[in-house]
């Protein structure tokens, strides 16, 4: 199985006219992108290689080996940037990365199986868990809120969830 990739940023467009690029950073410290240096595309191929970076509103302004002109930077606008999961620091005991949820069992508070987490999505209104039902059938979505998912037990390989009444 290929190593999981974690999205850490996105190309926001050109900065100035000399080939610098603006990156939106999804890391706690935007400068972490500079320390990763090599950022990948979602398929694992090379995205950008950062040679220099400085903080800017909403992220970073960087120089990259692959970009020499404003036009090249603008052409990459929207490119999602990833690093291997192993590149990230280990989370604290009570923290986790959203990617760590994928594959976990989903159970009711009473322990009845509801399925497994297929993916974590964000369509703009917050994180949503896509659940593959234990009994088969189409996937369903569950808001990733404390009310809907009161417990995340990474070490046990499961989450406790309250299934919405709308989902049959």
Automatic annotation (TrEMBL):
<dbReference type="InterPro" id="IPR056792">
    <property type="entry name" value="PRC_RimM"/>
</dbReference>
<comment type="function">
    <text>An accessory protein needed during the final step in the assembly of 30S ribosomal subunit, possibly for assembly of the head region. Essential for efficient processing of 16S rRNA. May be needed both before and after RbfA during the maturation of 16S rRNA. It has affinity for free ribosomal 30S subunits but not for 70S ribosomes.</text>
</comment>
<dbReference type="Pfam" id="PF01782">
    <property type="entry name" value="RimM"/>
</dbReference>
<feature type="domain" description="Ribosome maturation factor RimM PRC barrel">
    <location>
        <begin position="99"/>
        <end position="166"/>
    </location>
</feature>
<keyword id="KW-0143">Chaperone</keyword>
<dbReference type="InterPro" id="IPR036976">
    <property type="entry name" value="RimM_N_sf"/>
</dbReference>
<comment type="similarity">
    <text>Belongs to the RimM family.</text>
</comment>
<keyword id="KW-0690">Ribosome biogenesis</keyword>
<keyword id="KW-0963">Cytoplasm</keyword>
<dbReference type="InterPro" id="IPR009000">
    <property type="entry name" value="Transl_B-barrel_sf"/>
</dbReference>
<dbReference type="InterPro" id="IPR011961">
    <property type="entry name" value="RimM"/>
</dbReference>
<comment type="subunit">
    <text>Binds ribosomal protein uS19.</text>
</comment>
<dbReference type="InterPro" id="IPR002676">
    <property type="entry name" value="RimM_N"/>
</dbReference>
<dbReference type="Pfam" id="PF24986">
    <property type="entry name" value="PRC_RimM"/>
</dbReference>
<keyword id="KW-0698">rRNA processing</keyword>
<dbReference type="InterPro" id="IPR011033">
    <property type="entry name" value="PRC_barrel-like_sf"/>
</dbReference>
<protein>
    <recommendedName>
        <fullName>Ribosome maturation factor RimM</fullName>
    </recommendedName>
</protein>
<feature type="domain" description="RimM N-terminal">
    <location>
        <begin position="7"/>
        <end position="86"/>
    </location>
</feature>
């Amino acid at each position: 199985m290929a190593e999981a990739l974690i999205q850490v940023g996105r190309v926001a467009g050109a900065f100035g006219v000399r080939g610098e690029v603006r990156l939106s950073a999804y890391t706690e410290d935007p400068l972490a992108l500079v320390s990763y240096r090599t950022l990948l595309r979602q398929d694992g191929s090379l995205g950008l290689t950062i040679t220099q970076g400085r903080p800017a509103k909403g992220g970073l302004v960087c120089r990259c080996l692959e970009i020499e002109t404003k036009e090249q930077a603008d052409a990459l606008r929207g490119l999602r940037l990833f690093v291997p999961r192993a590149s990230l620091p280990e989370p604290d005991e009570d923290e986790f990365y959203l990617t760590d949820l994928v594959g976990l069992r989903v159970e009711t508070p009473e322990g009845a199986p509801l399925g497994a987490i297929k993916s974590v999505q964000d369509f703009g209104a917050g994180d949503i868990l896509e659940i593959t039902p234990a009994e088969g059938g189409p996937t369903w979505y569950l808001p990733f809120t404390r009310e809907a998912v009161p417990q995340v037990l990474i070490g046990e390989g499961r989450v406790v969830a309250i299934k919405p009444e709308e989902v049959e």
